[in-house]
Specification:
With 303 residues, this protein is an alpha/beta fold. The protein has 11 helices and 8 strands. GO terms for molecular function: triacylglycerol lipase activity.
């Protein structure tokens, strides 16, 4: 892993596959680090002929931490945002979209297949709509163009005060992933523990979660914006997602011209190893099809 300067911040990233292969940029979600993208997924996509780039969003993992306004002020911002009152967030989803494009600049990637999960899907949607020249295809996973209400039990878990120490963080993350995982792809106990331990050992920034959440809460609807997406788009969503309910995926697909919605029965809001083969086939197949369709245009012909 290494770091690059992008949009005025330091972005930690990791790559898989040949440097000259078509790039897939993986954008992770709320409070999650690049390691939340399974190694097996990244390696599988690389074997399918892609250069895979995963990275820590600003304020998490090993990327730049952002200044804190203090827990009291941050809690106040969260409350105001939840009530749809005016808030000046520490940073926005648009800032994070510019981070992603800045990382592409730093890595010499002219255009990439952009794949985002959850909040990362929101960021990917912005990049695809506002920088169509940089996006070969879009894959939006378990995401939404607007704020949607999670199940009550999940909302309660989201709004708990930040973990006080690493041990508490491990317990909470483990419980949360079990809460939001779907019935068809449950992680094993050892898999889940390994994922959580790896994440907390790598970086422990409990306050950054709230700042990411404020960025989501203060973001305007992207429904009208998504009408400008021209990249071939795949929308993946689980039928049992309790954090971003299925309606979020349906709205994303409806807003993007020509988008294909793939509903995965029994999938929740988690990327367990059991789901990786399906993700590889769906994402790689979508990217290869997009590249094949673009070849006649590149050669000066017509599709």
């Amino acid at each position: 892993m290494t770091a690059a300067q992008a949009n005025g911040v330091t972005i930690e990233y990791e790559t898989f596959g040949a440097p000259d292969a078509p790039a897939i940029l993986l954008v992770m979600g709320l409070g999650m680090q690049l390691v939340a993208w399974p190694d097996s997924l990244c390696e599988g996509l690389a074997r399918r002929g892609f250069r895979v780039v995963r990275f820590d969003n600003r304020d998490v993992g090993l990327s730049s931490p952002m200044p804190s306004a203090g827990r009291l002020a941050t809690s106040g911002m969260m409350a105001r945002a939840a009530l749809r009152l005016p808030v000046r967030p520490p940073y926005t989803l648009d800032d994070m979209a510019r981070d992603a494009v800045g990382l592409m600049d730093a890595l010499g990637i002219a255009a990439a297949h952009v794949v985002g999960a959850s909040m990362g899907g929101m960021i990917a949607q912005i990049v695809a709509a506002e920088r169509p020249d940089r996006v070969r295809s879009l894959t939006s996973i378990m995401s939404s163009p607007v704020r949607v209400m999670p199940k009550a039990r999940v909302l309660g878990a989201l709004l708990k005060p930040p973990a006080r120490n690493r041990e508490q963080a491990i317990r909470r993350m483990t419980a949360f992933f079990r809460l939001v995982g779907g019935s068809a792809y449950p992680p094993t106990d050892s898999e889940l523990r390994a994922k959580v331990d790896r994440s907390v050992a790598r970086s422990f920034r409990p306050d950054s979660f709230a700042r990411h959440l404020i960025a989501i809460q203060t973001a305007p609807s992207r429904v009208a914006l998504l009408a400008h997406v021209r990249a071939p788009t795949l929308v993946l969503h689980g039928s049992e997602d309790p954090l971003v309910p299925l309606v979020g995926g349906e709205m994303t697909a409806a807003a993007i011209p020509g988008a294909r919605l793939r509903i995965v029965p029994g999938m929740g809001h988690f990327l367990p190893e059991a789901l990786v083969p399906l993700l590889i086939e769906e994402i790689a197949g979508h990217c290869l099809k997009a590249d094949a369709a673009a070849e006649p245009e590149t050669l000066g012909g017509t599709p």
